[in-house]
Amino acid sequence: MAVLMSESITIKGVRDGLLIILPNDGDFASVYTLLQTEIEQKHQFLMGSRIILQCKKRPLTEFQLHSILTLFAKHELSLHTVLGERMETRDAARALGLGTRLAGSSTDLDGNVIRERKTAVTTLPPEANSLLLRETFRSGRSVRHDGHIIIIGDVNPGAEITAGGNVIVWGRLRGLVHAGAYGDETAVICALDLNPTQLRIADKIAIPPQENGRKPTPEQAAIRNGQIIAEAW
Amino acid sequence: MSAKVITVTSGKGGVGKTTLTANLSAALAGLGHKVTAIDADIGLRNLDVVMGLENRIVYDLVDVIEGRCRLRQAMIKDKRKTDLYLIPAAQTRDKMAVSPSDMILVCDQLREVMDYIIIDSPAGIERGFQNAIAPADQALVITNPEISAVRDADRIIGLIESEEKGPAQLIVNRLKPKMVARGDMLSVDDILEVLAVDLVGVIPEDESILISTNQGLPVTMAAVDGTIAGQAFNNIARRLSGEDVPFLDLTPKTSVIDRVRDWLNGK
């Protein structure tokens, strides 16, 4: 097993691929530069690897994670999973379609227990795999999850929610929701006020009619006879 | 066919880039040209809302660049005009998702099939502006008759020249002829004296613009072309397509009633 140490970035070979551990201190720019030098130096060794990125306590935004992703892609590394203790890091990883935990392990590769967010129930079996989020999704936020997504809060125009299963919004849904993203036509979308910019279920797309003076009522959208229909919930 | 790529920019935010892009695109399409509007403001998109096409977005510019869809799939056809399309920006990403060379590639594909490509630039002089200006054949700088907007326009004109996309052409937006007449607002001549570039249009302040942007219906698209701003936009479109159109007469009306009203209002 190769263990390569640099000033502050650690690279280890592990069962699931190569583990890159980012240091806890230093700003993003300096960590990025370190990472870049490290990858460029060890390009031959790293090329083609599956990477697991351990961010520990470091918060990474979607933008920062995306720039790391681009850096990796340039060197033919595929980032597979992002581990971290910070909720924003994991949100960012999910938004970019990356995994946030390793299969069947409740500890990270340093032997530390991964502290799951209290609201994020991701330890259930796959068929009951749900993500519970208690926040308001404003324009520009996006969440992607393989199972069901339950949101306690509003989804504003410009926010995007993508789920493999069903989506429930306990609040106003005014943005874009895609349920059954992997082709499940039985998926449904429910909201206390269903007034989205656009709805997608499996490969169907619906644009709700503009109604003036509508009263918010709980509704559920589902595919009926090949069309997305909203009905009272 | 080879389209002309026109980038609308300003440096300062809120002076009317998106409104100009939407109305100019609709006006050019109204003249029978094939037009595609591109929103280059990744992460803060607005052009789709102003054009009333927000709810029809499936794929966006970043999807095209990252290969998740074909260019044609990201082009939303505006059903109210024969040949008007919008390529929306991505909202959940940021400027770094697009590079200047990506923009050149996308525009080069469109050049084959379009007459005009109008790019809505984000505010600022950083990456978003670089992306928007990279494929441009022509740059339109829009400004308001106020010192800060003119400063920023001056800066952006310099940048356009250093990118060798000049000379920039100027549009003055939200002019209030009455305030100019009283000497309370910069006149078009004052602005031209500072910026020293060609003027292609003056758009007077017009409430109908706010109504139309909220409705997602550009004034140049409305069935009855009654608004003064709509006329100004249409004139810009005609000037850009080579016609020689005189500027609108915006000198304030000085009827007796107006003068009495002004006097009563203490002006």
Account of the 3D structure:
The complex is a heterodimer of chains A (233) and B (267). Chain A has four helices and 16 strands. In chain A, helix 1 packs parallel to helix 3. With 267 residues, chain B is α/β, with parallel strands linked by helices. Chain B has one domain: 3-Layer(aba) Sandwich (Rossmann fold). Chain B contains twelve helices and eight strands. An eight-stranded mixed sheet of chain B has the order 3-4-2-5-1-6-7-8, with helices on both faces. In chain B, a hairpin with a 6-residue loop joins strand 3 and strand 4. Chains A and B meet through helix 3 of A and loops of B.
- What sort of overall outline of chain B do the alpha carbons produce when their principal axes are compared? globular
State the end-to-end distance of chain A. 56 Å
What percentage of residues of chain B falls in helices of 4 or more residues? Answer: 40-55%
**Order of adjacent strands in the largest pleated sheet of chain B:** 3-4-2-5-1-6-7-8
What CATH first level of chain B would be assigned? Alpha Beta
The residue ranges of chain A in which pLDDT falls below 50 over 5 or more consecutive positions are 1-6, 104-108, 114-126
Let me know the largest β-sheet of chain B. 8 strands, mixed
- Percentage of residues in strands of chain A: 25-35%
State the strand order across the main sheet of chain A.
6-8-10-12-15-16
Mean pLDDT of chain B, as a whole number?
93
Alpha-beta content class of chain B: alpha/beta
Number of domains of chain B: 1
- Give the radius of gyration of chain B: 19 Å
Total number of helices of chain B: 12
What is the string of SSEs of chain B from the N terminus onward?
EHEHHHEEHEHEHEHHEHHH
In percent, how much strand structure appears in the residues of chain B?
15-25%
Helical stretch tally of chain A: 4
Number of strands of chain A: 16
Output the structural class of chain A: alpha/beta
The Cα radius of gyration of chain A reads 20 Å
**Shape descriptor of chain A:** elongated
